[in-house]
Records
---
Amino acid sequence: MKQEEWLEQLTKLFQDEINLYSNVLELEIQKSTAIVQADAKSLETIIKKTYELLVMASEIERVRMKSIEEVYRSKNFAFPETGALALSDFLNRLDRDSNYRLKEFGSSLKSILQRLKEKIKSNEKLILTRQEVLSKTIEAMKEKVMESDINTYSSGKNPERKQTKRQSLMLNASA
């Protein structure tokens, strides 16, 4: 494979991967909104779309790494001792023009993946907070039910109706 061909192929793969991860990042932003609004249907749709995009991105990454491996073989580059190919090692072995062109895409991909990682962590914290609020609300409701007087009639010769003593429970719906 000629240098122009593999360089063009790797460039295209990087662009596709960057676009997919950008779409996943956008979905994670939408996911935050769905979590805050407690919109389960939207959240389910977003999770399915995210999964589909991640599967596609994984396949593109596999093809990209295979292409890099082919370039290693065609250029007779020595494979790293660890056995795992690293993009930085690959770029360091290329000529300056190819290195510059691919390094820009590698940096963009790394930046998007870093932002995506931060957003995923943020969404995990949001979900845990929502679960905690829901658990505490359920606990408070159970406690109030146990505290209230449930008997409505007295026993004995002349049963009389008693007023139940139910306490109010104030919930913060926006939490």
---
Amino acid sequence: MPGHAADPTGEVKGSTLERVRALILDASGIVLGDNKASMVRARLSKRLAATGHGCIEAYLDFVERADDGTERNNLVSAMTTNVTHFFREAHHFDQLRRIGLDARATGQKLNIWSAGCSSGQEPFSIAMTLADAGFPPRDVRILATDIDSHILALASRAIYPRREIQAIPPGHRAKSVLVEGEDARIAPVLRSMVDFRLTNLVGDWSFSTPFDVIFCRNVAIYFDPPTQAQLWSRMVGALRPGGWLFVGHSERLPDRLLTQVRYAGQTTYKKIKAEGGTAR
């Protein structure tokens, strides 16, 4: 039918666009709006070229029939936008430093999750902050997860263009980065603090040990409201009492969760402790 077909160089609209949206939503929880049609076309064209398909409909048939889900993951990776830099939203790292200093003083170990870690700048900023606070690397575990397997492979290399490290405060930079020509490599001791793992935030994830700190910033904004609400509820559930949750500048938790967490600063929440049944 006119307006319901697509090719690598044409428009993506009608039922074809709806089919792509449904695939991405089902696989990742990400919502592709009407304004994303041009982006979808451009990124689909790359997947068609990579898989040797001549039209989008045939490619989508292939994705839906694929047994191991590899190309479905490749499609999700193609549709995700990875925008990040070191020490983004610096006030979160100021608070993390205070958390690290308090934990070091009491001999507490820290379990931290960087959810939606993209190419690794966030978890390595976490590692730099704690190392600078004198927190022993052996006493911290930083889990860094993302849905994009390709970007995780880049993150695990811990190598960045030299120009990107300009966002790292000079005091951290000198101790944390090894410059090699036009590349900058994260110091091995910091790399050892981070465990990268492929995780779909709307999938069936669970962790045996609760987290002291969760960074989940500028991730939920890509989900529809019901998925956002479910994600925030699960994030709060994954925190230990007294644990901290850092969110993006345009994100906020639903009011119903404010019985479990309290607002603790700009885009910052702290899980409420209960003593003798009384929240504080």
---
Amino acid sequence: MAQTILAVLVSFVLFVSILVFFIKHKQRMPYYQIDRVGCVQLLEQAVAGDLLERDWHVFIGMSVRYDVEIEALRYTCIEVDDEHVINTILKNGQSYVVFSKKGLLILQDLLEDWRHRVDYLA
């Protein structure tokens, strides 16, 4: 009788321990949500030539359902990516996006527009 109670108690403690472990360490979906200020920062980095390739691809690769204007910017950036990304360069072990002159002009226009939106239309 004592062995049965001990076995049930050990099984219960083991089950609870495993349950707590999996609840504590469960996988969560990555959370990425960019705001208007983040868009301006991304465009500033692109124009300056300091835009990491991974940041660029995260921005253009994830749809934005919470802000129609940011989604429109993302679509414009996808077009810039398709037509005006020349290459990537490696600096300090990180890959940066290189745009054509026309692509940089488009990004500069977008940057001016978005700076206005953030500074004056907030």
